[in-house]
Amino acid sequence: MSAPVLVINSGSSSIKYQLIDGETLVASTSGLIERIGQSESTITHKTGAEKHVWNEQLPDHAAGLEALVTAFDEFGTPLSKTGLIAVAHRVVHGGRRFVQPVVIDDEVMAAIGELSSLAPLHNPANLEGIQVARKLFPKLPQVAVFDTAFHATVPERAHLYAVPQDWRSEHGVRRYGFHGTSHAYVSRQAAAALGKSPKEVNVIVAHLGNGASVSAVERGRSIDTSMGLTPLEGLVMGTRSGDIDPAIIFHMHRQTGASFADLDSALNKESGMYALTGQVDMRAIEQAATGGDRDAEVALDVYCYRIRKYIGSYIAALGGADAIAFTAGVGENSPEVRARVLESLVALGVKLDDEANEAGGPVISTSDSPITALVIPTNEEGEIARQTTTLLRS
Ligand code: ADP
Question: Which residues are responsible for catalysis (predicted)?
Fold first, then answer.
């Protein structure tokens, strides 16, 4: 039995999609619609070995999703003939309420809308995708899978911020964590790579993409993660600062008169590797460092040091780890970053195998390394499809 699911990841000006089997996790079609609402949008639609790219004017998400349906009609199998069982939506913030995937109804939509105060950049865009998809596919179940859900098991000692009580009770201030589908999938795959069930192992996952986070997964359950109330906390990222002294915000406000909206934007969109090097693409930054660019070299050092600190603290939080798994764009593709992160963790039990690291793994530690270091390609869409299929069959 196959279970094709259309997975939709709707951003503010883009829609990523995959038609993927929720059992085998094989994606038959994938695509990306970019620059929705601008003068010209680009659609990239890949099916089997074919790739089609064209430009079209798509004023809004409704037009984007209609273009998606047309792309399926024109290339390969129309969606209506695929035996689609559901449309699954990635939703960034599930707050305290959504700790599992849910079938979307009006009430769920209202709740996702209310959570927009916690994720103003993401939830409204996710919601727009859902609204349009419900109209376009009225007979199919629509499922929401939340980025925060996997971290719902993080205990109080790790999710409580020591801030005034009403911030916490009335304004939802706590650590939620993100990239949950990736941390869930990769930690499970890491256990499989060790030949164990997830319940038998402790795994640290370093998801290093444009956004980046680390999680500590104890016997299959997330017990800590580096992102917090929002995706701003934790690691140095492409354009996000990660951890800073919060008083920097008040200092800069007093010094420059910058509004909180400006400071929010500066920390989310103009900080991180971009602020340190002028670039966000890790390949370019590595090349610049190799070529002797001091800013790039220092930025790489800052980036990797922050990851190393988190990994070290999570080994302590877990009371020992069986594996460290690297994933996402940088984690999967940069031997340089992995080596810099792991180089001084020998005392904590990680012995890197340089050749295996250069070759890309999956195992990149030596056979006598107490902690196994791994490279595991993430599959967020696959995990969303899997969770959707499991929910609909339960
Ligand atoms: P997103 O968070 O947008 O999904 P990705 O997981 O696709 O991001 O990761 C994007 C990042 O991966 C970019 O910074 C890119 O430079 C980096 N990356 C991709 N390939 C390589 C590579 N070969 N070496 C170093 N970095 C890479």
Answer: 147
- In this predicted structure, the answer to whether residue 1 has a pLDDT above a threshold of 60 is no
Rounded Cα gap, residues 89 and 6, in angstroms? 8
Whether residue 157 lies inside any domain: the answer is no
Residues 216 and 357 in one domain: yes
34-59 per-position pLDDT tens digit: 999 888 999 999 998 999 999 999 99
The atom number, within ligand 1, closest to the CA of 207 reads 6
Does pLDDT of 309 surpass 90?
yes
Question: Is residue 291 included in any domain, yes or no?
Answer: yes
Q: How far is the CA of 283 from the centre of ligand 1 (A)?
A: 8
Note if 147 is an active site residue: yes
Tell me the residue range of the domain where 213 lies: 196-375
Domain total for the chain?
Answer: 2
- Closest-CA residue to 137 (of 66, 206, 50): 66
Which of 147, 224, 243, 353 does the annotation list as catalytic? 147
* In a domain? residue 124: yes
Q: Is 156 left (phi over 0), alpha (psi -120 to 50) or beta?
A: alpha
Contacts of 133 (CB under 8 A, 6+ apart): 8, 65, 87, 89, 142
Ligand 1 pocket residue status of 334, Cβ below 6 Å: yes
The CATH number linked to 94 is 3.30.420.40
In a domain, 179, yes or no: no
The whole-model pTM stands at 0.95
Predicted local distance difference test score (pLDDT) of residue 167: 97
